[in-house]
Each structure stands twice: as structure tokens, then as C-alpha cells.
Design a protein that fits this description.
single chain; mainly alpha; 5 helices; 2 strands; 8% strand; elongated
């Protein structure tokens, strides 16, 4: 009964956070089944847990709304990492063909790495690594999501305050990446195409791989 979870990337380690989608709000929904060229649709009612006598549907809807925003922010933060790593992969491929481009590509790589390391703890390799290396922005957002989705009820005022702070930081990191791609990527691509090599193409898509999630 959950909406789709946030996008992840290969080898990601989170501490006290998860990427699961928010629980659907009680109400009327439709189930659709398509088989052998035929589609059948039937209504269903998702009911509120009867034990939640002090929790209203409005409370659950508010919880869903904030959880959904957090879920989208986790995806956006992870897409920043995916984009940067894909650009690095393309640069590695170019360097295998023409190592002389290293002096041109390395400054761009370093600027990308600075953004990546603000968004994700790149030193994480195992579930216990967050004990030694501080979590970064995507993990903080995911941890807030776990808190907001814990139990059934209206989010606390502090949850909104933390969300606003983390969302602001995410907007700043996205702006940094967008500005870097606008200022530096054209020159890098000119150098690559001048050597008859493919231009770098930013993408938010990564081949799906198993996600590593640290124990709570």
C-alpha cells in the first residue's frame, strides 16, 4: 500500500534512513489488472486502522504529503550523485582512449567531486562505515523521511523545520551542479570533440543495482 520509493544508486549506504515510498492515505482506490489483451478494473477501499481513534484522515493526509516531498528530495539528491558519477564514468572512458586529456578533465572532475561529497558520504563502503564517517545531505533527508513515516499521525513542527533546512541545502547543491555544467561542460566537451571523442552527456539514469541499507 505504498507509493514508489526514492531512486537509489549502486552501493549506496544509509544510516537510520530508508528510501521507501509513503503509505497511501485511507480512501477509495482502483485496482487494474491487464491480461491477454483485456483490462479489468475494480474499486477498493483502503481503511484506516481502527485502533487509531485519535488520528484523523486529515492527519494521515498531512503525513503523506510531507513524506512524499521528502521522498522526492531523496530522489533528487541521489540523482545529483548519479549524474556526477555518470560524467566521471564517461571521462574515464575518454582517458582510456586519450590520456593526454587528463589535465583538461581533472579540474572538472574535482569540482564535480566537491558537490558529490557534500551530497553523499563517498567513503561509505559497508553498513558500519557511517560510525566513522559523518552522514551527508541525502542521508539526512532519508533519515527525516524515516522519522516522518514512523507510526501514523500528523508530522511534528520540528519535522517541518528540519525539512525546510534540508530542502534549502538541496536546492543550493542542485544550483551548484547546474551552474558548473553551464560554465565548464561546454569547454570540456569542446576539448573532447576536438580529439574526435564523444561529448559528455549528463544523465540521471543509472543501471539498476542492489541497494545497501545500513541497519538501524
Amino acid at each position: 500500500m505504498r507509493y514508489p520509493g526514492a531512486k537509489t544508486f549502486e552501493g549506496m549506504v544509509l544510516w537510520s534512513g530508508n528510501t521507501q515510498g509513503p503509505m497511501a492515505v485511507p480512501g477509495t482506490y482502483q485496482v487494474r489488472l491487464t491480461a491477454n489483451g483485456k483490462t479489468l478494473t475494480q474499486s477498493m477501499v483502503l481503511q484506516k486502522d481502527p485502533r487509531l481513534d485519535t488520528v484523523t484522515i486529515a492527519d494521515l493526509r498531512e503525513q503523506f504529503t510531507l513524506a512524499n516531498k521528502i521522498n522526492a528530495d531523496v530522489t533528487q539528491a541521489n540523482e545529483i550523485v548519479i549524474t556526477i558519477r555518470e560524467l566521471k564514468r564517461q571521462m574515464d572512458a575518454a582517458l582510456k582512449t586519450n590520456p593526454d586529456l587528463k589535465s583538461t578533465l581533472d579540474p572538472f572532475r574535482d569540482k564535480l567531486s566537491a558537490i558529490e561529497e557534500d551530497v553523499y558520504q563517498v567513503r561509505n563502503r559497508s553498513n558500519q562505515d557511517p560510525l566513522n564517517f559523518p552522514i551527508k545531505l541525502n542521508n539526512k533527508i532519508a533519515a527525516l523521511g524515516s522519522t516522518v513515516q514512523h507510526g501514523d499521525g500528523k508530522p511534528t513542527a520540528s519535522s517541518y523545520e528540519v525539512y525546510d533546512l534540508l530542502h534549502k541545502r538541496l536546492v543550493e547543491e542542485q544550483a551548484k551542479l547546474d551552474a558548473l555544467l553551464k560554465s565548464d561542460l561546454p569547454g570540456v566537451n569542446k576539448a573532447l570533440t576536438g580529439k574526435q571523442l564523444p561529448a559528455l552527456v549528463p544523465t540521471k539514469t543509472e543501471t539498476p543495482a542492489p541497494k545497501v541499507a545500513a541497519a538501524q
